[in-house]
Amino acid sequence: VQLVESGGGLVQPGGSLNLSCAATGKTNVLNCMGWFRQAPGKELEWVANINSGGTSTWYADSVKGRFTISKDKAKDTVYLQMNSLKPEDTGVYYCAAGDRNQRCLKQIPEFNYWGQGTQVTV
Question: How many other CB atoms are found less than 10 A from the CB of residue 87?
Answer without folding.
Answer: 8
